[in-house]
């Protein structure tokens, strides 16, 4: 296969050796022609798209700078739209009393483009506008495809584009930012439902009230849903109408910029949940028939509508569609400084049948001709573009089929995502809770499910996302405790169902986090076991906002057990984030025994021990581990986390030598492990011997103390010893060994904030 050299930052020669993905996985060899063909498709399409732009995919993706409404450098306005099927187009709005006027009539240009040049006084800040488009056989009002501000009338509920030109545009204070991905710890969230009060939350409320909580909880990234404008609030943002407009129901574009800037100041990356897999069917609000045709952006045949999602499907084979979508990626990176994207519905994009009802049981299922080469090409180009614009950007694929190479670099034969969602993990936990008796929770199964992944692809592990929190599904805590949550979550109220549920909730989350090979994700509120599902206002609930919010007061109250779960989540995140490059450390299984339901594995200096047994506690339970001394770094049964405090966390554990294993540096580690508990042990490093100072030695240089970086003050604290046990304020002294909560405390990280302020 001949790959043409390109002037794009990528350089290719005749492929004399196999792509890395084929070298790394011999089982893919029978499908080499398909993999190499996809690779060549991208190269050819890249050359085609960038021929006029000098070879740069970033220079190609500038559609938003040409189309839409813009100020002219010499004064006045220019408005452009791509509408090849239109016969006439007028700009209508409040400035023309929504009537067609000659002064606002657009002129047809080449290649299906239309243009309108206006003087300064033709438009002003706050003016509402649309297009009146005519075509052979009809006409209709349309919102421009590249509108960057779209608002809804509170009375009529009609959406219109709005001229957004603030007198003092927001200027970012954080000029440079690099996400902390070692490891990546994501807090998935929704702006509108992040507030306590019943109603729609705002960007400003999120910035002021929720961001400090996330920073205090130790997460270094947020993944924001529902940013792109969508007509129906209850769609969760997945039926997008205006791809370039941040949802106005949460505030202004500058409000969003201010939020992202503040997140960066706190050391938190901002990932956008971007929807390029489909679009809303609406014609008045969306792209449905922008110029009267059915195939401007979408398929014009039987593939036009998604059979399960009631939405329209992009035609990724058209260069104009690629121009629109690739430019959209660059737009959010450049204009709002998002740090990357979680691509929604990637499985639906990859396959002609959208992967619906398919098991994907063998490699052949990924190369049987059911794959859409145009969609694969688009996704690969999107990853190229994003990393060209921002080499530190993060891309995540929501994909459930397990397509090999999805999170492999393009030059190695992959599609180029940085991570893929480990979507099988939450499904596994749901299956375990629903179908297995406690006695049948086998460590071999748990460990296999959490570590069964391709070695060359990084994943985002998670127990539950927003999907499990929606009406129609259940969160892990609600599956475990159910209605008892409403009656027995007071501190001091001993209830077996609640005690079991809290114990397993902590263990499930810890084992999922401890086995990551890329990152970890938590959905807003699940860290403390939020008791209510998400139900957006709709006719069936009387358009109520009662469940479209988060009840932060529950975790703030020290008389409720939610604070215990939150404290544990803080402590386990602290453990993992305190180990640089934790996700890259090998997961070494030390022990698994299904009869006992005990699992132990090692990562670096940390040993994770789980006893899933519902009835049996073990005293002096032994397993082989690297020889040495160990301290308890985290104990799920600590009273600080709502447990029984059965373990003396101050006790250090020493391995017992065994002549058979001593030559390999191992010994028997014996410990007490109560039922339904987890412990994290940390190897105690021997202190270096002090060097005896000689008279000939030169005087030492005076020491300077580094100023401790203050982290955001915690707003959520456990019921007991709250300040000392959970504060993330930098410490210079070793914490007392009296509780696992104290052991989890560590000096504040100064490496997390890789940014420069103006």
Overview of the structural elements:
The chain has 758 residues and is an alpha/beta fold. Among the domains are: 98 residues, Sandwich (Immunoglobulin-like), CATH 2.60.40; 130 residues, Sandwich (Immunoglobulin-like). It has 18 helices and 30 strands. It has an eight-stranded parallel barrel with strand order 11-12-15-16-17-18-19-20. Strands 21-22-23-29-25-26 form a six-stranded antiparallel beta sheet. Strands 3, 6, 7, 8 and 9 form a five-stranded antiparallel beta sheet that branches. Helix 2 packs across helix 9 and helix 5 packs parallel to helix 6. The N terminus and C terminus are likely disordered.
Structural class: alpha/beta
Oligomer: single chain
Distance between the termini: 49 Å
The major β-sheet equals: 8 strands, parallel, barrel
Look at the structure and give the mean pLDDT. Answer: 90
> How many helix segments?
18
| Percentage of residues in strands | 15-25%
Uncertain spans = 1-16, 699-758
Lateral strand order in the biggest sheet: 11-12-15-16-17-18-19-20
CA radius of gyration: 28 Å
At the fourth CATH level, what is the homologous superfamily of the domain at 586-687 and 730-757? Answer: Golgi alpha-mannosidase II
Helix percentage range: 10-25%
The total count of strands amounts to 30
CATH architecture of the domain at 586-687 and 730-757: Sandwich
CATH topology heading of the domain at 586-687 and 730-757? Immunoglobulin-like
Shape: globular
CATH C-level of the domain at 586-687 and 730-757: Mainly Beta
């Amino acid at each position: 296969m001949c790959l043409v050299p390109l002037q794009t930052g990528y350089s290719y020669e005749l492929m004399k050796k196999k792509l890395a993905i084929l070298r790394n996985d011999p089982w893919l060899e029978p499908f080499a022609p398909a993999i190499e063909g996809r690779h060549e498709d991208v190269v050819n399409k890249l050359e085609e798209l960038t021929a006029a732009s000098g070879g740069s995919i970033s220079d190609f993706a500038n559609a938003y700078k040409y189309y839409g409404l813009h100020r002219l450098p010499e004064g006045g306005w220019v408005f452009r739209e791509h509408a090849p099927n239109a016969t006439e187009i007028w700009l209508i709005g409040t400035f023309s009393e929504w009537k067609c006027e000659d002064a606002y009539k657009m002129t047809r240009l080449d290649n299906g483009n239309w243009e309108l040049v206006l003087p300064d006084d033709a438009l002003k800040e706050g003016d509402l506008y649309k297009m009146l488009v005519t075509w052979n056989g009809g006409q209709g009002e349309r919102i421009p495809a590249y509108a960057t501000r779209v608002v809804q009338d509170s009375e009529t509920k009609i959406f219109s584009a709005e001229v957004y030109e603030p007198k003092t545009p927001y200027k970012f204070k954080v000029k440079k930012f690099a996400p902390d991905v070692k490891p990546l710890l994501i807090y998935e969230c929704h702006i509108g439902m992040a507030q306590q009060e019943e109603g729609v939350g705002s960007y400003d409320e999120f910035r002021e009230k929720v961001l400090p909580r996330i920073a205090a909880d130790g997460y270094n990234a947020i993944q924001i849903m529902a940013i792109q404008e969508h007509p129906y609030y209850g769609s969760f943002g997945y039926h997008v109408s205006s791809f370039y407009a941040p949802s106005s129901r949460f505030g202004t574009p500058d409000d969003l910029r201010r939020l992202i800037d503040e997140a960066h100041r706190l050391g938190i990356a901002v990932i956008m949940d971007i929807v390029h897999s489909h679009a809303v069917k609406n014609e008045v609000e969306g792209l449905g028939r922008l110029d009267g045709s059915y195939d401007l952006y979408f398929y014009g045949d039987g593939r036009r509508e998604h059979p399960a999602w009631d939405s329209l499907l992009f035609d990724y084979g058209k260069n104009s569609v690629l121009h629109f979508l690739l430019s959209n990626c660059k737009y959010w990176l450049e204009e709002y400084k998002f740090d990357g994207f979680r691509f929604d519905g990637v499985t639906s994009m990859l396959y002609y049948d959208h992967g619906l009802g398919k098991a994907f049981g063998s490699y052949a299922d990924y190369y049987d001709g059911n794959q859409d080469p145009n969609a694969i090409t688009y996704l690969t180009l999107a990853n190229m573009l994003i990393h060209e614009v921002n080499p530190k950007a993060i891309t995540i694929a929501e994909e459930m089929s397990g397509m090999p190479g999805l999170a492999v670099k393009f030059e190695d034969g992959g599609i180029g995502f940085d991570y893929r969602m480990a979507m099988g993990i939450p499904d596994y936990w749901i299956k375990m809770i629903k179908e297995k008796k406690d006695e049948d929770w086998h460590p071999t199964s748990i460990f296999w499910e959490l570590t069964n992944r391709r070695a060359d692809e990084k994943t985002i592990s998670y127990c539950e996302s927003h999907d499990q929190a929606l009406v129609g599904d259940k969160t892990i805590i609600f599956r475990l405790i159910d209605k008892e949550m409403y009656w027995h979550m007071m501190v001091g109220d001993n209830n077996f169902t609640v005690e079991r549920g809290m114990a397993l909730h902590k263990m499930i989350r810890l084992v999922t986090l401890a086995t990551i090979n890329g990152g970890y994700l938590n959905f807003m509120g699940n860290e403390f076991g939020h008791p209510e599902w998400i139900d957006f206002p709709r006719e069936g609930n009387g358009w109520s906002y009662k469940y479209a919010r988060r009840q932060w007061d529950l975790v703030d109250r020290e008389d409720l057990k939610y604070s215990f779960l939150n404290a544990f989540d803080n402590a386990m995140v602290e453990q993992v984030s305190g180990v640089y490059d934790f996700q890259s450390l090998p997961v070494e299984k030390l022990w698994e025994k299904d009869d006992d339901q005990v699992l132990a594995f090692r990562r670096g200096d940390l040993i994770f021990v789980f006893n899933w047994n519902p009835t049996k506690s073990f005293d002096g339970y032994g397993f082989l581990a690297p020889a040495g001394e160990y301290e308890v770094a985290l104990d799920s049964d600590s009273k600080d986390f709502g447990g029984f405090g059965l373990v003396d966390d101050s006790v250090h554990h020493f391995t017992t030598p065994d002549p058979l294993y001593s030559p390999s540096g191992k010994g028997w580690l014996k410990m007490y492990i109560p039922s339904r508990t987890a412990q994290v042990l940390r190897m105690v490093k021997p202190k270096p011997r002090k060097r005896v100072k000689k008279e000939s030695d030169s005087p030492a240089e005076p020491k300077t103390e580094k100023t401790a970086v203050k982290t955001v003050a915690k707003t959520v604290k456990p019921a007991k010893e709250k300040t000392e046990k959970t504060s993330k304020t930098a410490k210079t002294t070793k914490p007392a060994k009296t509780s696992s909560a104290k052991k989890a405390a560590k000096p504040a990280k100064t490496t997390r904030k890789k940014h420069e302020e103006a």
